[in-house]
Amino acid sequence: MAETTQLTRHIESYVDTSSSSPSLQAASLNAIASLVKTDVLPLEALVRELGVYLTTTDNVIRARGILLLAEVITRVESKPLDSATIHSLVGFFKDRLADWRAVRGALVGCLALIRRKSVLGTVTSSDATAISQSFFQYIQVQSLGQYDRKLCFELLDCLLEHYSDALTTLGEGLIYGVCEAIDAEKDPECLMLAFHIVQSLAQLYPDSSGLLASFAKDIFDILEPYFPIHFTHPSNGDTHVQRDDLSRSLMSAFSSTPLFEPFVIPLLLEKLSSSLHSAKIDSLKYLRVCSSKYGAERIAKYAKSIWFSIKDTLFTYLGEPNFSLNMAPVDGIGFPENEFVMEALFLLQQLIVQNGSLLTGIIIDDEDVNIIFNSIASYEIYDAIPVQENKKLHAIGRILYIASKSTITSCNAVYGGLFSRMIDNLGVSVSNTDSSPNDNIFPSQRVKFGFLYLCIELLAGFRELIVGSDEPALQYAIEQATCCTWLRNFSSSLFNAFGSVLVASADRCPLDPDIYIGVKGLQTLAMFHSEVFSLQKSIFENILKKFMSIIIEDFNKKVLWEAALKALCHVGSFVQEFHESEKAMSYESLVVEKILEFLFLDDIVVPFPVKVEALSNIGMTGMKNMVTCLQGMKKAVFSNLSKVHTNSRSSEVAVELLECYACKLLPWIHENGGSEDFALQFAMDIWSQAGNCTVFSTSFEEKGLLDALIRTMKLSVGSCSVESQNLIIQKAYSILSSRTNFQLKELESLPLSPGKYNISLTDEGIISLFASVVIAVCPKTLIPNMRVLVHLFIVTLLRGIVPVAQALGSILNKLVSTSNNAENSSDITLEEALDAIFNTKIWFSSIDMLQRYNGTSNGKEIVLSDICLGFANDKLLQINAICGLSWIGKGLLLRGHEGIKDITITFLECLIPGTKSALPLVMKSEDQIQDPLVMKSAADAFHVLMSDSEVCLNKKFHATIRPLYKQRFFSSMMPILLQLIAKAYSSSSRSFLYRALAHVLSDTPMVAVLNDAKKLVPVLLDCLSMLTEDIQDKDLLYGLLLVLSGILTEKNGKEAVIENAHIIINCLIKLLDYPHKMLVRETAIQCLVALSELPHGRIYPMRTQVLRAISKSLDDTKRVVRHEAVKCRQTWASMSSRTLHF
Q1: Inter-residue contact 784 to 725 (CB < 8 Å)
Q2: CATH homologous superfamily, domain 1005-1142
Q3: Closest by CA position to 642, among listed 677, 587, 716, 693
Q4: Which residues form the MMS19 C-terminal domain (predicted)?
């Protein structure tokens, strides 16, 4: 009884909408459905319990009762039901369709029953027919609301999908009913279903003489008003349907049956002349799809009309071609993207594929095509062709390109009908068509540009046809095709024609169309598949020779040189990709080997960077070519390294080659799945060369050789596996221990004595190179004798060798902690390394820090942090120590280690005078404590900590990086820095604290800054004012200005900005004429524009001041700044004094 009472309560809660909320109704419905689904409540019992609610004369209660039953059936669709129950339910809901007040429940119930899967019990065909008859008899779809109409369309759609055979018994009644239901529908979701229903009808009656044929015009008349789709629903409305969805659905309905052809195609052709953008585009799309569905026979009668429409579209909308090899596609000539042009060409290709003979015949016989052929015969260069004829020339070229790439039939037709006319009119001799071309000897007369242009389009189209023919039968058909014969006969003439263009135009710069056509033509001719069309070997090799002659001899003609190099790269990539073995041999001997000879050619006329660029680009055409180029480059590198001490030019050459290898070739090898063997061997060879002390016996700073070696070593090591890295570091350690003056065994004894070592250039080079290896290795790579190396690095970082400091930071970042000692591959743990760095005693003489330590001189033992605080009485040493400690701190910060706290305290002590306890031996005056260079180094240490480094401690070099480390450091440091700034009594100390804060702010993600924007804006403005004084601070100033810009444009930062609006505006006005960086001026103006969005009362009083200041920016030397100034003036000038809101 209790259960019955509970069920009644649920039913009444759902049925009586006046006494329960929607959420309570939904909960009651779910509870009832759960009872039925778990068999606690049989469905028959629910029907009995609902009896009075299903038959009552109260319209509202009856409608809710029927809907409750329908919704329960929907929710128990996975529950098996016997046929008798289903039949009974069908009878009930079918009859309820006549009850217009309860029609929603009836529709939901019928839909739930129709959608049931066969294994769970389904509606019979006779019941489906009965539902359909009742639906068409009682339901006036367009008189219902949107939701109920959608249910109607879903029910019709399901009936047609699952019970189509049963519905055919309805005869004309089905079609009449569908037409009546969908006529004048406007809702997007309902239309999607309505269009799909039309498709289902078309599939139900596919016969051209069937029932649908009599009603095709009626259905089309209903569909026609919807084309083109005019979509007015907001994109953020309740519907998820977009215009493109509706358009595709209508297109599917139009193309669903050939019976619509007499009505659809004329409509689409008519709409092509519309001024409405969507009508034109949709007409082209619909024509393509409908032509495919209707078939060649039906479309043939419209072929000429469609052709004229395509041609007119191309004549109107095709833009100027991009005569640049850097922008051009590999095949064909590149044009600016245009939707009309793309759709027109897609349609043309579809028609040619469908009926090639008919369309190509129309094209060849077209009046405009023949007029263009006759007119361009008069012009030798591109610039001489009139603009209108040029547009038509480009359009005809695109048409021929599509025709030649679509099918073998169409390709044969255009080659047979037009290619010979082009060759005859080129202006070159064609008498010896079968003879080999002269090697790089071209006729001096000019050729006709227009015909050569069209030849390229034909060649490109034919080549694409070949590339797309993977099947052997198709390849054989192409090989025997007429187009192959034509091209084979005239390939020599084409080579001479393209070469002649380059001879006549090579001195024109910048790049003109004639150069582009010459290079592009030779490139296309060289890139035909040998299996299908075998270009004569002599022609292919002469093409390569022509390009190589430009590379070697015409390096001063920049555009021509770049075009030839680009073409060589395309040809090389093609040869490698398609395994053209014979062409590959020619390419290797005539291009790759010649490029290497070019590299070693001792010619001061040709700039060496030109040679390196050619080598790197040719290498990147394929892995085999890359290996060859790398071998040659390595030989050149070590040849020049061996001569750096006698020839200053060798150092420059070595730097160029190392930069190319590290920045271009090595990343390419990695991206293309190359082996690490070369990187390993290259690194090992550098160390072998480093063993020869003469390599490092010259000054590196002038030529940047040491930097190049370090960068190359890091990138090579970083790309290797742990096993390879172990080999490299063992080799490096052996050179370090045997070829330097460092006595590694003595470093095991304490205290350390930096003054004991006079570091030579050789020692500096080798230890810097060794440090680069340590920076790049993986955490699991075994670094030998780590304890001694840590001591060595401490000694050498005090001499200002920055890579050593970076190596120490990397060691601390990657070392395993004591708690994970089982995973440690080193002889030292993180805790032991930290103890060695921060607690190792370092001996210094009070007389001369650099003197040799003999154990008798007066001196003092101090630790690294003491040196940072100035206890060594040497400013340069102090700056070096602070720099080293910053990189050590960065390694700890990235891994989230607590040791970063002590390091930041040390930096802060350097910024605040009088906070440290001085030792008697090195007691300093106030002036010494406040040395600005030391304080600047301590402030800049925060930039090292927070910035993303490219040289070390990044993912590329396998660093351990904890998520959100910047945000955590920012949160911990901001309160401290703000407090110290507030209490600072020294102006110099305050300025450097501002500098430290500026570094932290500018490198922190904006999300973290916004949370504290209210506190940070005032101090941020102080930082901006302080940083305007020194030109060296321009980048830091710009970074801080970007932070302010972020606060201004984010909703979370508006409150902080409103309170300080006047101060911010004054600060930004001062930056409008900042002379040292254009981006500062531009960003300051953009910030002023953003401020104009603040409440009117806050900013209006500053309006006159802003307009006066911004007027000066209108005359700025940079156009970008002037453009922003105009926008800013318009924004602020448009304000009025109306409605001040405070």
Answers
A1: no
A2: Leucine-rich Repeat Variant (1.25.10.10)
A3: 693
A4: 699-1091
CA angle 766, 769, 772 (to 5 degrees): 150
88 Cβ neighbours under 8 A, 6+ residues apart? none
* 862, containing H or E segment: strand 859-862
Taking the C-alpha atoms of residue 249 and residue 254, their distance in angstroms, rounded to an integer, is: 9
> 618 CB contacts (<8 Å, ≥6 apart)?
565, 568, 569, 572, 591, 592, 595, 625, 629
pLDDT at 921: 33
Provide the phi-psi class of 295: left if phi over 0, else alpha when psi is between -120 and 50, else beta.
left
DSSP letter at 436 equals P
Q: What would the two tokens of residue 680 be?
A: 């390993």
Contact 96, 105 (CB under 8 A): yes
* Domain range annotation of the chain: 1-77, 796-996, 1005-1142
Beta strands, E only, 801-858: 842-845
Dist CA 849 CA 843 (whole Å): 9
Rounded CA gap, 587 and 440, in Å? 17
Q: By three-state DSSP, how is residue 844 classified?
A: strand
Cβ contacts of residue 196 below 8 Å, gap of 6+? Answer: 157, 249, 252, 253
Two structure tokens written together for 797: 């970082």
Q: Which amino acid is at 523?
A: Q
C-alpha distances in angstroms, 241 versus 187, 223, 789? 10, 18, 67
Give the Cα separation of 65 and 55 in Å (integer): 9
CA–centroid distance for 191 within its chain: 36
The radius of gyration of the chain from alpha carbons, rounded to an integer in Å, stands at: 41
Cβ-contact 711, 658 below 8 angstroms: yes
Sequence letter at residue 682: F
CA distance 982 to 539: 80
Element housing 146 (H / E): helix 146-162
**What is the sign of the dihedral through the CA atoms of 319, 323, 328 and 333?**
positive
Q: Apex CA 332: angle with CA 329 and CA 334, to 5°?
A: 55
Q: Is 931 helix (H, G, I), strand (E, B) or coil?
A: coil
Residue 337 three-state SS: coil
Residue 477, judged by CB atoms within 10 A of its CB (0-12, 13-18, 19+), counts as middle
Both tokens of 905, joined, read 């305290």
What gap in Å lies between CA 1044 and CA 1064, rounded to an integer?
A: 9
> What is the structure's pLDDT at 2?
38
Residue 99 to residue 231: CA distance in whole angstroms = 34
Angle at 867 between CA 863 and CA 869, to 5 degrees: 115
Whole-number pLDDT of residue 754: 54
Task: Count CB atoms within 10 A of the CB of residue 677.
Answer: 11
Q: How many CA atoms lie within 13 A of 1140 on its CB side?
A: 7
Give the per-residue pLDDT at 432.
Answer: 42
pLDDT < 50 regions, the chain = 1-2, 431-435, 437, 439-441, 750, 757, 846-858, 916-928, 1138-1142
- Residue 438 φ then ψ, to 5°: -70, 140
- pLDDT score, position 959: 93
Are 812 and 892 within 8 A, CB to CB?
Answer: yes
> Could you count the other beta carbons within 10 Å of the beta carbon of residue 907?
22
pLDDT reported for residue 429 = 55
Q: How many CB atoms lie within 10 A of CB 826?
A: 21
Contacts 24+ apart (CB under 8 A), 1099-1107: 1099/1061, 1099/1065, 1099/1135, 1100/1135, 1100/1137, 1100/1140, 1101/1062, 1102/1061, 1102/1062, 1102/1065, 1103/1132, 1103/1135, 1105/1065, 1105/1069, 1106/1065, 1106/1069, 1106/1132, 1107/1132, 1107/1133
Which one-letter DSSP state was computed for residue 606? S
Backbone angles phi, psi at 861, to 5 degrees: -100, 125
Two tokens, residue 591: 């291009």
